[in-house]
Amino acid sequence: MDRAIGRFHVPAASMVVSSFVAVVVSLGLIDRALLPLWRALTGGRRAPTPLQRIGVGHVLTVLSMAASAAVERRRLATVRAHGEAARDDPAWVSPLPAAWLVLPFALSGAGEAFHFPAQVTLYYQEFPPSLKNTASGMVAMIVALGFYLSTALVDAVRRATAWLPDNMNASRLENLYWLLAVLVAINFGYYLACAKLYKYQNFGK
Fold first, then answer.
1. Residue 205 is assigned to a structural domain of this protein
2. Closest CA to 55 of 108, 107, 118, 104
3. What is the number of structural domains in the chain?
4. What is the annotated signal peptide range for this record (predicted)?
């Protein structure tokens, strides 16, 4: 994708910074705007529960995967528009501006801003006193497990399909994003079932 801004070319690896910026901005908006608005709309009742905030994070993650698929589909459309020479050349760069990637990264960062702080709050609030200090460790363990599972998923997709060849201009990467969106949506459904059955032990204390 075209990463040029005037004469400056944005390094590919730095695109992920937009996700971190989205986390910081979202945390500020949640604290300074969304929570006061929630209290105003609910007549001063307590803030959304940790489970509700985690649920919002799940929804934003699904939207992030769908947005990634849509952007990749648009990129591949520009490849096809330039013919077989572009498709068969791994070094060919799509003229589609890389700024399109900001949306999926921003949605992912906003999802993390809802999800991970609420997870730490839930664990610290609900764990027995002897385990409260492990709350942040549990979140880190879940993130690490997610990295391992994502690597395993990509490896399985490479073995079972032709979606991820060495030449990404001839790939079907958008299919992988749609697969991830479906898996995250299924996980969200399972989460909703568990959250509905869960009974808080210490909420509001």
1. no
2. 118
3. 1
4. none
How many whole angstroms separate alpha carbon 39 and alpha carbon 21?
Answer: 26
* Residue 203 belongs to some domain of the structure: no
Phi-psi region at 121: left, alpha or beta (left = phi > 0; alpha = psi -120 to 50): alpha
What CA–CA distance (Å, rounded) separates 45 from 55?
A: 19
Mean pLDDT of 76-95: 84
Task: For residue 164, give both structure tokens.
Answer: 């991820």
With 0-12 / 13-18 / 19 or more C-beta atoms within 10 angstroms meaning exposed / middle / buried, residue 3 is middle
* 22 domain-assigned: yes
Q: Give the chain's mean pLDDT.
A: 87
Q: What is the pLDDT of residue 203?
A: 57
Please state the rounded mean pLDDT for residues 147-173: 91
Question: Model-level pTM?
Answer: 0.87
Q: Which domain holds residue 19?
A: 4-197
- For residue 171, the model assigns a pLDDT of 87
Cα 69–Cα 73–Cα 74 angle in degrees, nearest 5: 120
